[in-house]
Design a protein that fits this description.
Layout lengths: L1 E5 L2 E5 L5 E3 L4 E4 L6 H6 L9 H16 L3 E5 L8 H4 L2 H13 L1 E5 L11 E3 L2 E3 L2 E3 L10 E4 L4 E7 L2 E6 L1 E3 L3 E3 L10 E2 L3 H6 L5 E8 L2 E9 L4
Helix pairs in contact: 2-4
């Protein structure tokens, strides 16, 4: 885990895209998109049907690594509204076991319709922070969200690679997608920059070899 300060709170970034909030003993993940493979299978695109198992195992690993007692998922938890009903028995058992050992809160997103064990909320305020699925432009409170799947493109050894990252401004933090079958959007995309407002600057943030790396991607034009 790599220490990271946001809006006066000490947090930590985990490899894979999870965020740990020590004061709340809470693990935060965004955009699990569980049962994405089974959704596409209904339309003839056959993908390996184990994405939910892989994603939930990654959540379990992050819980063990952080010692979290609570989990907050920041929306698009299932890939579609019927996803919870399509969980195969092994994945359903994994989810049931996880929700028994931690206090699990689903923040709803534009793909969600409930039906999974745990508590479902539209958004949640904890202290001075607001947890929601999609960043609200103009929000003055400190905000944690998902939805955009931010990625940073890096040139290394003559080739370009894209890595999931956090999009961070002074009062907003957008988490990367945590699901096994999720794509991403360039962190400097105008849609992400617009969602981060008001801001003086936006950075891509990610852990690299145990160190915090911050890459500037946008800065407010001087008056």
């Amino acid at each position: 885990m790599v220490p990271f300060s946001f809006a006066g709170e000490e947090m930590a970034l985990l490899d894979g895209g999870a965020l740990y909030w020590p004061r709340e003993q809470a693990l935060l993940v965004a955009d699990l998109h569980l049962e994405k493979a089974s959704f596409y299978a209904r339309f003839g695109q056959m993908l390996p049907p184990y994405d939910s198992r892989e994603t939930l195992e990654r959540v379990a690993t992050a819980i063990r690594a952080s010692g979290a007692r609570r989990v907050f998922t920041l929306g698009d938890n299932f890939h579609d509204g019927a996803g919870a009903n399509r969980l195969e028995p092994h994945a359903a058992g994994m989810l049931a076991a996880l929700t028994r050992v931690v206090d699990w809160v689903w923040i709803g997103g534009n793909h969600d319709a409930g039906g999974a064990p745990g508590t479902m909320l539209d958004e949640l305020a904890i202290g001075a922070l607001v947890l929601r699925h999609e960043a609200l432009p103009g929000e003055e409170k400190a905000e944690l969200s998902g939805h955009f799947h931010p990625k940073l493109r890096i040139a290394a050894r003559g080739r370009s690679v894209a890595r999931p990252c956090w999009a961070a401004s002074e009062r907003k933090l957008i988490l990367p997608a945590f699901g096994a079958f999720t794509g991403g959007m360039d962190v400097a995309d105008p849609a992400i920059i617009a969602a981060m407002q008001p801001a003086r600057a936006v950075h891509a943030v990610l852990p690299v070899r145990g160190q915090l790396v911050q890459v500037p991607v946008w800065r407010e034009a001087p008056l």
